[in-house]
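Here is an idea for our session: we take a single protein and study its fold together. To get us started, please write out a protein record for me. Start from the sequence, derive the backbone structure tokens from it, and show both lines together. Go ahead whenever you are ready, and we will take it from there:
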Amino acid sequence: MCCIKKITIMKYNTFKQIYYAHRIRKANLLRKVYIYLTLPINFILNKISYPKIQNLDLLAEKKQFLFKKDFNYLCNFFNTDKGEFFVSQYGRSIFKNKKLNSGHNYHIFYEKFFYKKKNDKLNILELGSFKGGATASFYFYFKNSEIYSGDLFPDLFLYKSKRIKNFFINTSEENEIIQKIINVNKKFDIIIEDAGHYLKDQIISLFLLFRVLNRNGFYVIEELDFPDTRKDMNINNEKPTLRKILLNIKNNKDFHSEYILDADKKYFLDNLKNIQIFKGKFNEIAFIEKK
């Protein structure tokens, strides 16, 4: 992939945007002054306590048994919400959170679609890698595959490997997707979209990236129903959502979206093999298969 470079762990602007931007927006003048004065100190404390980057290639030598585990075990081991349980990763690192939360139970569907492919040599693109728990799970589940993990905050990523490429991407921008993924002429066998979940992001990602999906490949969309059920993911209540578009296609109904070019729509429909939508513990996940 292009534009891949060494990433510094947790930059100041990332820390500010994730943990304090919403507080600053809501604060009165005095509170804002206090936040800005204390923010550098809080950043230093959190950066010191931030977990060290883990080399998965070295971990694999010590824990060979992980290659034999099912996907749910790996999700729980590396703390991603794709499995049954996880500890929230959104708190500041100086606060040690150990509370177990219920996960999405998406592991059931990943096993259903990819168990027979797990030993194949695949190219996997993951959008929305965050701290890398799911990436580490994919590393051991797909033991012969290359994994390309993109995120808006790649400086939070906690893993490294010869088989993992971590990079910055803003999936709300068409030009970012085109320049950093499509224009590098690389094809993928599995694309997992777990990024912003906003209405526009979901739509443009699918209809642009379907072109770089290999034949018989799968495009996975997590939290497909967010723009239908969460106001913050669809502020202007736009229609149709990607969920509605996919349901229309399954029912042989036409659709129109200002975010889809006619050429991309035609390519998608001409090369689509199957759409399956499932309900996890809380939200929906879609598996779209290419011819």
Notes: The first helix runs from residue 12 to 19. Residues 149 and 166 are 5 Å apart (CA to CA). The chain has twelve helices and eleven strands.
